[in-house]
Design brief:
Elements: E1 2-6, E2 9-14, E3 19-24, E4 28-29, E5 40-45, E6 58-65, H1 74-88, E7 93-102, E8 105-114, E9 117-126, E10 129-137, H2 139-155, E11 157-158
Antiparallel strand pairs: 1-2, 2-3, 3-11, 4-5, 5-6, 6-10, 7-8, 8-9, 9-10
Length: 160
């Protein structure tokens, strides 16, 4: 991982995953090779509001390898993802699902609520990998940081 600061954002380069994303200088990196789980390659934690704040509001980037010879379209992947969320999370409530781009590649964005959080996920397929950016926050903080999150997602770039 390579980080360099520009303005109020730090550029996070992950050459091993072929990507780059900018994050606010005040946010902390919460994931690295030592603590990866569920295909998360990096996470960025939103600063705590005070010393008693136990929330873990964050934006995380995931990279999943597609199985060999597994040919699935983005629409099929999103449909499966939404179905899985409905089946495994009883409090899941889909708010919207819209086409978008991620790093110049066709993507899909879903917004939903579950277990006391509002979440936004953007997923794209490039080559044999699925790239997912996921933002989750308590509903009262979701809107406070959504414009920053949108800037982060807009900064997402594939290195080749």
């Amino acid at each position: 991982m390579i980080n360099k600061q520009t303005d109020n954002f730090i550029v996070c380069v992950l050459p091993e995953y072929n990507l780059r994303i900018n994050y606010p200088a005040a946010w902390q990196i919460v994931g690295n090779k030592a603590i990866l789980y569920n295909n998360m390659v990096v996470g960025f934690g939103i600063p705590k509001e005070n010393s008693t704040d136990l929330s873990f509001d964050s934006l995380c980037v995931y990279v999943l390898d597609m199985p060999a010879n597994y040919n699935i379209s983005l629409n099929e992947f999103i449909d499966l993802n939404i179905r899985d969320l409905k089946d495994t999370r009883p409090e899941f409530n889909l708010i919207e699902s819209t086409p978008t781009t991620l790093g110049g590649v066709p993507a899909y964005q879903i917004v939903f609520t579950e277990t006391g959080q509002k979440k936004l996920g953007v997923s794209a397929i490039k080559g044999s990998k699925v790239y997912m950016v996921s933002y989750g926050a308590r509903p009262e903080r979701y809107l406070k940081y959504i414009s920053t999150v949108e800037q982060m997602i807009a900064s997402f770039e594939f290195l080749s």
